[in-house]
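Bug #77: duplicate submission created two jobs. Keeping one. Sequence:
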Amino acid sequence: MKRIEPIGDFKLVGFNNLTKALSFNLYDFCVARNESERRSYVQYIAERYNAKRVTGILKGICDIIEANVLAVSDQDYEPWGSSSMVLMSDIAGGGASPDVPAFKAMHLDKSHICAHTYPDFHGGGKICSFRIDIDIATCGEITPLRALNYMLEHFDNDVVVIDYVVRGFTRDSEGRRVFRDHAVNSIQDFIDPTALKDYHCIDLSLQSENIWQTKMLRLNQDIQTYFPSPVNPKDPEVLEHMSMINREMRGVLHNWPE
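Kept job's structure:
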C-alpha cells in the first residue's frame, strides 16, 4: 500500500484550496429464492446498514484521514434505505492561533462525507443486491485516499467502483498555480495488496486531467455467503445460482442493462 507522496519540492502559500473528491460505490449480492428470503434480505440490510451504523463508519473515516467531525445528519427511510452526512475539518486547522477560536479556524478547512444505501430486490429474478455510495469531498491537506482500506474492511464487497478527482488550484511561493499537491499513479497503489488478490481490477488514469478510476470484481468467492441457509456447494442448482450472481456482478461492473 502506497503512502501519499508530495509532488516536487515546492512550498504552498496561503490556504490550500485544492478539492479532492473520492467516490466509493460498493455492491454486495445474494441469492433470494422466494419472497420469504427476499424479505429476510431486506431486514438484514436494514439492521446492518441503518443510518446510525453508517454514520459510525463515516466517523471512522474521519479518524483515518485525521479530520474533526463538525456536524452529523442521518436518516433512515421507509420502506428501506438510509443516508448520512458528516461535516468535517482538518485537525491541523484547529487552534491555529490563541486569538482565534478552534471551531472558527477549523471551519476554514471545510469538507464533508455523505453516504446513501440502495437495496435492490426488484430485478424480477432470484438475485438481490445492496449498494452503498460514499462520497468524500475534502480541501486543504486532508486526503481521502487514505480511507480506502478502512471502507473495504467494513463492507461486503463483490463489485467496487472508485473514482478520484482533484479539482481547483492553489499557489506556490512564486505565485504559480498548483493543480495537484500529491502523487497518484493508480488508486490500486493505496489499497492493501492482500485485499487486491481477491479481485480482478480495471484502471482508468487521466493524469493530465487529474482523474483516476479503479473497478474491482471479486474473484475469490465463498459460496455459502451468498445463500441465507446452508447449501451444498456442488449442488447443480446452487452452481446455477452462482452463475446468475456472477452474471449480475459483471453486468454492474461493465454497465450492461441486462
